[in-house]
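Below: protein 1.
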Amino acid sequence: MTGKRKGHRRRRTPAGLRFAALAVVVATGLVMLVVYTRPAGAILASPAAAPVSLGDRLALGSEVGSPGPGGNRAHRTLVVYDAGERDAPNPPAAADEAGMAEAHAMQTANLVSRAGSWTMRAAADYQAGEIGGYQALVYVGSISEAALPVALLADVAAAKVPVVWMGENIHRLAEHDPGITARWGWTPVGRTPTSPTEVRYKNVPLERNPEIGSIPLVRRENPAVNEVLAESGTGGEPTPWAVRSGTFTYLAEAPFSYVNEGDRYLAAADILLGTLAPKTEERHRALVRIEDIGPRTDPGQIRRIADLLGGQGIPFSLAVYPYYADPHGVANGGRPTFARLVDSPALVDALHYAIRRGATMIMHGYSHQFEELANPYGGASSADYEFYTAIVDKNNHVVETGPVPGDSAEWFRERIATGLGEFRRVGLPEPEVFEFPHYGGSAVDYKEVSSHFAARYDQGSYFAGYCPRGACGSTSTVSYQTKYGQYFPYPVRDVYGAVVIPENLDHIAPEPFNQHPARLPADLLADGAKSKVVRDNVASFFFHPFLPLEHLSTVVLGLRAQGYEFTTASEVARG
């Protein structure tokens, strides 16, 4: 998600942090490349497998704007957003503000895909009568006093199709059509005096970070013609956060900043789904993914996990990277160590055993690290980033910094083809689903995934400039100054054209790491309970196999007790 602090969602606990020897050098706030002299006793891997022909894989990419799993292609929504223009005498929005507004539009379109197809349009480019070609319109108000054409205001005021207005500039609609407030039964009256700390939806309290600031204030005048869907508050008198009047629904913010797992964002996701696909039935499914499995993973633990989950009839996914690299020996007592799946027959046997007990293979990158770079830790597989660069700053915070050197579509394809070859040569199924290590990759990489895999299984990374004025797909105009992360409560097809299987409850982290607090099974279960405000949600978490299995058991049994039914990632990808 986005934030004024340019903060992102929690990073996953690096598996390598369990090794006390993890080497990090911090200088002037940056992690520098650590130069080692390799001991002569390095443990080397077998030669790389022959790469598969990616042309032999089914072409899986889909047109941007197509519906996600369960969506109706015939139901078309126009997503309108502020691209940075402001009405005189206000100056245009700064580049970072305009970039955030574009990101909010992308994040909105991602959610809209659950209901149907979509088109994105900069508000200033809207043409009179354009709404007539769609079954709904969503306006994403992220910039105050944005330039809104009279044609847009007039069409929204007279709309017969559902309209969802999120965030800023609602007063402009009231000024354009003074009679509209009587039809709404409420009036915009400035802003809340303080920053709300909670949004209550379906009688469930959802979190709201007070650093976000105030929101537009609504004064309800005729309750007979409207319905308050959600209320916000700071502990005093609640105020409407979402209100519906006929076919017009207003949300007091575009809730994509400072988002956590039990956030008011869930309310917005459900309101969008209920507005655009009102016949959606109540359904609550769950997913579990076993994370960071590589050639050096303990095969006995994989078998124990397979017995625990398979014995209860719980399907699960295995996120596997096929090549292990520790070029500086940080996780192996100073001894550089390399291995491929073919070098780990006991692990391969354990993976086959897990598949027989209900597991599905996910490709979790090729090596889960990048060459010999401390990225950001010591360069070892499972701890470091592979498709994006990162540092640890002077505050011990991980900061993502941009694409890796040499990043390109060709480089990505070569890496994926070789990785798939490693699965093939040991007789494991070639994964049809991909997960970026640490959910980090460039727009080029993310766009490329949708051509070679049926789905991603992650939280997406989005970048300003990818959808200039609503035309998504431009990697040449992307800015990597800020990465905008997003989790999904249901499956979607995102702006890269990829089906995204949700991961939204994070993972168990018994100890704090970097800027992130500990996260225990009780925390995941509390957020799982809140997530049920979404009428058709998927509660999805992942688990590192080196942790005590009682933690895994607590979460799966707890989600079942909450009424969730565990299913497979492929089933969720189908809708």
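Below: protein 2.
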Amino acid sequence: MVQTFPLTLPGTLVDTHRIDLTRLYSQGWGVEADDVVAAPSGDVYALYRVHRHTWEVSEDEQDPARANFGYRIITRYSADGEVLASALCCPSYGDKTASAVANGSDINLCVLPDGTLAVSARPDRTTLIAPDLSRVLATYDSNDHRPFEEFTPGNGFAGSIGVTPSGRLLCSVSEYGVWGYGSSLANIVGFTDGALTPGSRPVIEAIASLDPEPAHQSDDDLKSHVHHQGRPVGRDHRPRPALTEPVADEDRLSRWRDSRLGRPVPLADDLFVVPVFAKIFRSGNRGRPFLFALVDDQGEMTGRLQGLDAYHDSPFTGFCFTLASDPRRGRVFHLNRYGLYAWNKAGVLRARLDTAAKPFKPLVHFTLTACSPEGDLLLVHRKQHLVLRVPAPDDLSGLAAAVENALRAYARQRTALKKAWAPVNWHWVDTSAPVHRL
């Protein structure tokens, strides 16, 4: 069933900070989605951020109606799209330690097999939250703030997590010194067969790396919870060859130096898709090489997702680097400014919906975040702050008709939501659901 529901702003937040919803984003505030995922129970979780920064306001301003602010918001929806609860976390002004949720870059969500919500960010900061968003169950934080603070090893876990059909956790892990930088970047892909719980941090078995020889590492950089061939990953020990080494000739400009590791997704219990993107320049990135590698649980690169042209299907336009997988049916999807693409388990491109075609032009305004456990596509409209759930057919030859039907339904459902919610400039304010501060 096609569903549309809003990314809501808690009414208490709007009132406390006297947010002017009519104000243009160019005037110092904004709302931006980070991730949307669905749980096996049918619940849907959305993670997004709201901020206000006005240059003439002092950093020590005490009046919340004038002060700058920033929060991450997590909202839980029922299976029929009703807002059940919201949580505010990760304040970017004031007492930043007031939140038990570990904040960081490239923040994302995952629903673990036991229903716990995991919020992960780089470098290796994972927070476990109760399914009803009422409390934080545990925080695994790497305590890595280099180069701004001296490093004292913490108990971090992963920068992203995905779940295979049998419950394995597919993880990306950061390392210090990748490509010689004095900070931590995602560099390792691995999986764990054990459960991640508030009292147990399982060992991740590393199967792939991006930079085979990060610089400036010491014994403090050894990953006690990330192993390869029975030893902790770090210093000169990690999986080889690196993902970029077999395809070094495809990047003639930089030979994959300064490339970035995207968020890996499971395609089966023993097969994963690992995205790699070449160095991003200040301009003119369309046509830069990228790799959607198929990697098995032994660390062998068995192939890649095929059928994309580096220029005409470039994910660099708009920086659309997300993959969404349906491991139950062995398929993976990607949406960028030029099309929506679907592959089967063998990496064969089975569907391409061109956004230049009239029925699919609205897709350029959406971001694909994930697939539900049933295989439905979860998309977010970047301007209208609406989540669209698109049922994907078993036969991918019917994907075009399914998406076209969903976009028509979206227009009707959006109109109904506008009548019911009366949004201001596509900002949807909710005053009924409880709001937790984590």
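The two ends are 33 Å apart (CA to CA).
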